[in-house]
């Protein structure tokens, strides 16, 4: 079994301000990559800018990362980074800006290459990446993945290069300004990472240690998703659980719920967290009987009583997917033919089971 | 809180043979650093040599690492490495060769420097280090520490540079040829790492996750130390627990038992594992009352019932230290004046408590 996680992580209140010197040390001029507004509202962008200025490091801001960015969005940012002579990239925000930062760091370093290299299995260098997450789901700050929208394949897919951030600065305070819907959607993404990694063909003792601990931490703070007022500690826990879950999928990858979610996001515009969350109970449900003790352990650790109760609470939290019979069949066909994702499942899964999972994500017909 | 662990780890049967290509990729000519005999008996040295030859990588062997090596031993090996133009270092064996490999990698890279730089707080580069542990205690394959004997200070001390191995190849099979005394001494060192890291001023949620999981794994295999016949799985578990415990002290450092042990090893020639082990029950015993629930949890996880039972079993396993009244006082004085080690203790410890710990390590007077 393998364990690899080279990112230096600091999780604490004011992590960006406390570790500005470490952040600035990766280069002379940073390309800060973020979305249009949330990192301005929650203060993360200002924290990064203040820290860079304090340590006399230049920067330029690209604040046009889209949700589920495509290759065009990446190349636009990389063009700015190339023109401005930036030599490291700081991603600030949720999964979209963090994943984008990795792809952009690759494209700036390889300045004479075109976008085709993103999905080519080649050994390429990349600029150092610093990640500042402001949502509690992606875990991208400690994963080597960079999932982009691929219009050519009508889905989302991680680039072919594994790019771990050099530095992750993790601070729960950025969650304070997030709307409950964002908290829910991203915390459910982290939950999916824990469960998909724990019940994964590539799970190891190392990855299970991480996903199990993530479940413990997530379970303590989960009431927040159901409307309980959140404390500073709850935000820190949700953020910590998200990083731990990211570390877990760094070792294993994800499984069927993530695989199926890309259809919902690409074709139906459903946000990532909901798009994976609607499949979680169904995934646990199709696990063969020998997994039952582990499923019960996992659910209890998370604070749920049974698969049925868990399914009900997820529906309450996320609602269902609205899919036609045709779409349901298309999804089952697509996944049943996706050998890479099927290899992630820790048992022999057939099309009938996938169909059952997809149907379980829909409202009662 | 910080988490940093950049070493790529493979733990599995035949790890060295399975990952020869990764090992060979760190350079053109390796300096293999090992002790006089054990890595020949357990097959680790041959595995390394065969893997390098398979991938057309030159090497030279330095098989004269002493137990608790001093600076002279390091410089002798570094001299060979410099003359032979080696560009990476592979440590094979227990803690002594692995720690030595790190110091040697520093001294080969900085070829015009003298041994003084080992203990200077300077930012220096080092050759890549590959670590192949053959005992289940050091954890050095995943720590940045390199403890050497310092005759000038009459003690052991880690060098001033933090050097994580780039690659750790961990295989329980090398324990099969180890005498029971070596298994005991090294597994108790790992046990000390778990307990000292868990009850440490620098403990974080990350380090506690690692030390707690290490205790679970260690506890399952611990019967082996008391004479139960070991299975292949037991050896793998002891090796895994040792790596996990190493990861834990990578985040926190060690505490009083390690600090006190150096006196016993330097002045009394007591092997490292026993030298730390005799202080473990005493360390748990001086923890203030508020730690009691955690102490009980830790002992139960390890498979022990109480501090008293644990103390008895450790005495059965290791015996005691033979110390004069003068030596006992000298040790308490030394530690009570060691500010760096005192800062590792998660409460305000006084000389009286240290004296109690030292006395608890001795046979009844």
What do these coordinates show?
Two copies of one chain form a homodimer. Chain A contains 17 helices and eight strands. With 365 residues, chain A is α/β, with parallel strands linked by helices. Chain A folds into two domains: 167 residues, Rossmann fold, CATH 3.40.50; 181 residues, Dehydroquinate synthase-like, alpha domain, CATH 1.20.1090. In chain A, the strands form two sheets. Chain A has a six-stranded parallel beta sheet with strand order 1-8-5-4-2-3, sandwiched between helices. A two-stranded antiparallel sheet of chain A has the order 6-7. Chains A and B meet through strand 1 and helix 8 of A and strand 1 and helix 8 of B. Strand 1 of chain A pairs antiparallel with strand 1 of chain B, so a sheet runs across the interface.
Features:
homodimer; 17 helices; 12% strand; Dehydroquinate synthase-like, alpha domain; alpha/beta; 8 strands; Rossmann fold; 365 residues; 2 domains; two-stranded antiparallel sheet
Itemize the secondary structure elements and their pairings.
The structure is a homodimer of 365-residue chains.
Chain A lengths: L1 E10 L3 H4 L1 H5 L4 E6 L3 H4 L2 H11 L3 E5 L8 H13 L4 E6 L1 H15 L19 E5 L13 E4 L4 E4 L8 E4 L9 H19 L6 H17 L10 H21 L3 H13 L3 H6 L2 H7 L5 H11 L4 H12 L6 H12 L2 H4 L8 H10 L5
Parallel strand pairs in A: 1-8, 2-3, 2-4, 4-5, 5-8
Antiparallel strand pairs in A: 6-7
Short description:
The structure is a homodimer of 365-residue chains. The first copy, chain A, has helices at residues 15-18, 20-24, 38-41, 44-54, 71-83, 95-109, 180-198, 205-221, 232-252, 256-268, 272-277, 280-286, 292-302, 307-318, 325-336, 339-342, 351-360, and strands spanning 2-11, 29-34, 58-62, 88-93, 129-133, 147-150, 155-158, 167-170.
């Amino acid at each position: 079994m393998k364990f690899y996680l080279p990112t230096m992580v600091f999780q604490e209140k004011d992590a960006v301000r406390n570790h500005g010197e470490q952040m600035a040390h990766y280069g002379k001029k940073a390309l800060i990559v973020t979305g249009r507004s949330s990192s301005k509202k929650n203060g993360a962008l200002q924290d990064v800018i203040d820290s860079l200025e304090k340590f006399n490091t230049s920067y330029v801001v690209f604040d046009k990362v889209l949700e589920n960015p495509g290759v065009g969005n990446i190349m636009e940012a990389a063009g700015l980074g190339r023109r401005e002579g930036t030599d490291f990239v700081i991603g600030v925000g949720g999964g979209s800006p963090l994943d984008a930062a990795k792809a952009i760091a690759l494209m700036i370093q390889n300045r004479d290459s075109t976008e085709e290299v993103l999905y080519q299995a080649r050994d390429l260098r990349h600029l150092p990446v610093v990640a500042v997450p402001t949502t509690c789901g992606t875990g991208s700050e400690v994963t080597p993945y960079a999932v982009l929208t691929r219009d050519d394949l009508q889905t989302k897919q991680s680039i072919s290069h594994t790019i771990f951030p050099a530095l992750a600065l993790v601070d729960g305070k950025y969650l304070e300004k997030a709307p409950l819907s964002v908290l829910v959607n991203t915390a459910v993404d982290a939950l999916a990472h824990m469960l998909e990694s724990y019940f994964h063909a590539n799970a190891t003792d190392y990855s299970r240690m991480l996903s199990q601990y993530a479940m413990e931490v997530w379970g303590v703070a989960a009431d927040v998703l159901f409307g309980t007022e959140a404390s500073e500690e709850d935000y820190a826990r949700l953020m910590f659980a998200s990083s731990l879950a990211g570390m877990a999928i760094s070792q294993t990858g994800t499984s069927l719920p993530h695989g199926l979610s890309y259809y919902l996001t690409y074709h139906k515009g459903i946000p990532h967290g909901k798009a994976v969350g609607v499949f979680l109970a169904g995934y646990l449900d199709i696990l063969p009987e020998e997994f039952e003790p582990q499923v019960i352990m996992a659910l209890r650790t998370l604070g749920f009583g049974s698969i049925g109760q868990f399914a009900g609470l997820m529906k309450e939290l996320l609602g269902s997917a609205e899919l036609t019979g045709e779409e349901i069949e298309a999804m089952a066909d697509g996944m049943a033919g996706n050998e890479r994702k099927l290899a992630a499942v820790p048992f022999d899964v057939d099309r009938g089971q996938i169909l059952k999972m997809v149907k379980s994500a829909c409202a009662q017909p």
